[in-house]
Amino acid sequence: MTHTTHATTLQRAALLSASLALSALAGCAAVASLQKPAPKAAPTPAVAAPATSTQAKAPVTAVAPATAAPATAALTWATFGPATATTAQGGFINTFSYSEKPGDVAMDALAITGDLLQVRGNFVAKGASAWAGLGVSVEAGNNQPMDASGYKTLRIRLAAPNGAKLRLRLLGTDVKVRDSGCYPGFSQVVSAQDTVYEIPLARFATEAYCGANGATVAQTLARFAMVEVADSSDPVKTRSVQFSIGAITLLP
After folding, report:
1. Domain 75-251 in CATH: superfamily?
2. Which of 39, 43, 50, 178 has its C-alpha lying 20 to 30 A from 72's C-alpha?
């Protein structure tokens, strides 16, 4: 019994030893597999680091707007056709009429004949208004007021089939001054013949009633926005109104 037990023990020891040997070999193979170097990856192209400057950056300073340089060439303010709402330069054409008492003035729709803007209407003395008028204001190109201080003369093409004394007015951006009629104006006698008039801007002046509230020519030109052309009747007398406006130009 004792011998049999001893033999079994030896067999188990031999089996255990063989098992351990196999485990050791497997472990060595696993380690060798783990330690096998991986294939080398393709080298990554070197990327240069952004260049940096050690020079101190100059501080940003505000630049004052340049003063208006003297004008050296004529400026086309407006030409007309084919639309009646805007000029060829993109400025609005605004119509207006007024009278001391309602019903004493009526304005027709604007029309275009060739390159002329036609302005028509009527004064009616039924209300016995002391004053009335009708006309148009022609805005700067693209409706952008400009500094026109460098210009000296207004050139404008006008005609009136029955003859007329038209009021020309330079308008700035101050609505209060504009509504009170206190921007500088000039009266031009116009004949039936299509004529180009050149009027020095220095001849424009505000109405006497404006007093200190009137804008000077220099103040107006610094923010020049519109050229107004109107026929007025003071006092109102019944008559038709008709006049045409052609190209408007500023001359240095």
Report:
1. Galactose-binding lectin (2.60.120.430)
2. 178
